[in-house]
Predict the 3D structure of the following.
Amino acid sequence: MSEVGTEESGTIGLPPRPLPPTGQLSGLDPGYWEFHTANYDNFLRYASYDLRSEELAEAAVDATFHEVMGQWPRIKNMEKPTAYAMTVLKKRIIDQGRKRARTSIPVEEAVLWDLLHERTGRNDPLAAVAEKIALYSAVGRLPERQRDVVTLYYLLDQPSQVVAQMLGIDQGTVRSHLKRALPRLARAMDMPIERTGHGKAGA
């Protein structure tokens, strides 16, 4: 079973990767399935963070890979196929976000959904909710590329080389986006952002 984390770490468990429709398996280029396997979990993490709904995230990711599968002969020859698939995923996330908006789910409920899947280690859960609302708001106000890099690198704990591959940029550009984004976040949340020994942001 694919997982973002375990019960001990409090992170979100992922469902098994879905297979393509049975009737299409025999005709698939093996390279497509390798691409699917290499990227499915990372795409689902990203979509789950953005949509705050496992159901909507799965729908967005499945729609993405269905589209990629249909265009695979062209996509497999691209210089940056993962980055292209990410652009498709972001469009599908927007589609699913519109469906969620029509159900009038407030931001507080989205935050509480997230808190159910992690341990804050705090005695005051309301303070944790307030901090998360502030964080989501601050990250959401970043320019798109900075927002993607911060989400993948800091919030989803992806290594810089994976972030670079998913976004179609080099690792130096990842570092540059992070360098510009962190002061923006610190100002937006009215708090300092310190560096840990691993280069990640910490309180």
About this structure: Strands lie at 194-195, 201-202.
